[in-house]
Structures are given as structure tokens and as C-alpha cells.
Amino acid sequence: MKNTADFLTMKKNNEKIAMITAYDFPTAKYVEEVKADLILVGDSLGMVALGYDSTIPVTMDDMIHHTKAVKRGAKDTFIVTDMPFMSYHVSFENTMENAKRIIQEAGANAVKVEGGGEVIPIIKKLTMAGVPVIGHLGLTPQSVGVIGGYKVQGRDAESANALIEEAKKIEAAGAFALVLECVPQEVAKKVSEVLAIPTIGIGAGLQTDGQVLVINDLLSYGVERVPKFVKKFANVGQVFVSGLQAYVDDVKKEAFPEQEHTYKMKEDQIEALYGGK
Ligand SMILES: Nc1nc(=O)c2c([nH]1)NC[C@@H]1CN(c3ccc(C(=O)N[C@@H](CCC(=O)O)C(=O)O)cc3)CN21
Ligand SMILES: CC(C)C(=O)C(=O)O
Ligand SMILES: [Mg+2]
């Protein structure tokens, strides 16, 4: 399994970091099989695995439940779990207790927290307590209500500069990586150049130190509309539907189960059961 120092080395060596989300046991097994560098148990699970229309309803218990399943499927991959909405804003004690559960109870290797300014002291405290932290700037979906929609962030030089300053503070606070979501490539490039820690982009262009996508988006599984930054690498939804349709059709026309899927009694027992009839 890679560790936080390895991700720093990868950046130095210009070796790109590939991160993929996973929310359950079988998916985690596949993600480990392709040697993704990190798995993100993202709070996006609220939208793509639980059917909510934002990440706001996702709870600590949801994150623990899904992280445990992912850990069982990917014992040898570095796992990062999102701290969900309001799980790191109520109080210092509550934040530390929540991070403790994610690491100790669920088995994640690190946590991710959204935002700059106000969460800097939290990144510092978590890091000092021995919890590896990833920051997250740009579009921060837990603030969708404040932002007013899922919009590209840092489009003008002023807000871009503000974002770059936040990124530096996140690094200084001890984060070992930074997710940049939905920012122009020029902004992501500059952040990646000024930071020593790796940047992991989603909708941030090619010049970050790594990439992350939501697995349902990249496989086209259970998602209808996807953001512009998504590339469809496979059509798993289509594979699901064709397999399920074939099953339903076979059941209806008695083409399934066949003899090879069926258990049989020995002749004498059939005789005894049916009484020769
Ligand atoms: N399936 C899924 N994929 C994600 O990447 C994702 C989630 N869910 N849920 C949590 C957040 C929300 N995200 C989103 C959702 C929508 C857009 C979107 O529609 N963006 C517009 C940009 C509009 C603009 O120009 O400002 C787009 O057209 O891509 C972006 C990120 C990213 N995260
Ligand atoms: C989109 C990524 C960065 C995320 O935070 C999530 O999956 O929840
Ligand atoms: Mg998230």
C-alpha cells in the first residue's frame, strides 16, 4: 500500500496520481485490481449510491458503513474518507471524535475536508493528532446552498488568487494533498506549481498532479446527467440492463433455469416421493 510520503515522491517524479471513488465491497475490489493509487469514499455516495440530490443529507454513520465495506474489498489500497456535512464544524471535540471513528472504527487511512480559511485550524489539529488530511478547494459541494449551485470556481484573477492563498495555508496546516474541483486549468496549474504537496483535480484540467472521478460517472452506472469534466470510459449501465433484461425474458419464457442449474433426486427417491406415479 502506498503512503502519504509516496504521494509526495510521485509528484516530485512527475508520476500522475490516479484516484477513484468506491462505496461498496465489490467495487473496491475492482478499484484495487486496477491499482488505483488511492480510493476515495466520497460523500458523493449520497447522490450516486443513496439517491439524494445533494451531499448534504449524508451522515457520519453513512460514511462509516460504506468505508468499512470498501476496506474489506481493498485491504491493500490507501483509503480516504470524506468527512460529511457539518461533521467538522460543530466543535473541536466533535470533529476529533468523528475523525477518530473514520480512522479507528472504519479503517480509513486519511480524511478529506472541504474548504479553506475556517477549516485551516481543523486541518492543523487533525494532522497533529496523527490523522492524515486531504484538503478540497474550488467547488465544495457541501456548500452548494451557500454557493447557489454547482458552478466553476476561481474564474477571475481575484478569486483565483484568493484560492491560491487558501491552498498555501492548507499545505502549511499539514495536509498531504489537495483536491481541486471545478476550477479553470490555469488556476489548477498555478496551485500545482506553488504547492509541494500533490494536487488531485476533478474538472481542473491536465496540469494537476493527479485526477479523481466519481466511479459511477466514469463507468456510466446509474447516472443520468454528468458534468462536462466527466469522460465515459465504459457503459456499465448498458451491461447491467442487457443482463437483467435477458434474465427477465428467460424467466417469462421458461428458458431459465436449465438442467445444468437444477438439482435432482436419485431415481429410487423420486419413486418413493411420487409413489410410482
Ligand atoms: N455523480 C457525481 N459526480 C460528481 O462529480 C459529483 C457528484 N456526483 N456529487 C457531488 C459533487 C457535485 N459535483 C458537480 C455537479 C455538477 C456540476 C456541473 O453541472 N457543473 C457545470 C458547470 C457550470 C459552470 O460552468 O459553472 C457543468 O456544466 O459541468 C459540477 C460538479 C461534483 N461532485
Ligand atoms: C468528487 C470528489 C472529489 C468528492 O469529494 C466525492 O466524491 O465526494
Ligand atoms: Mg466529497
From TrEMBL:
Domain of life of the organism encoding this protein: Bacteria
GO cellular component: cytoplasm
UniProt xrefs under Gene3D superfamilies: Phosphoenolpyruvate-binding domains
Catalytic activity: (6R)-5,10-methylene-5,6,7,8-tetrahydrofolate + 3-methyl-2-oxobutanoate + H2O = 2-dehydropantoate + (6S)-5,6,7,8-tetrahydrofolate
CDD domains in UniProt: KPHMT-like (cd06557)
InterPro entries: Pantoate_hydroxy_MeTrfase, Pyrv/PenolPyrv_kinase-like_dom, Pyrv_kinase-like_dom_sf
Active site: 181
Binding partners and assembly: Homodecamer; pentamer of dimers.
Protein role: Catalyzes the reversible reaction in which hydroxymethyl group from 5,10-methylenetetrahydrofolate is transferred onto alpha-ketoisovalerate to form ketopantoate.
Name of this chain's protein: 3-methyl-2-oxobutanoate hydroxymethyltransferase
Species: Lottiidibacillus patelloidae
Lineage, opening ranks: Bacteria, Bacillati, Bacillota, Bacilli, Bacillales
Gene: panB
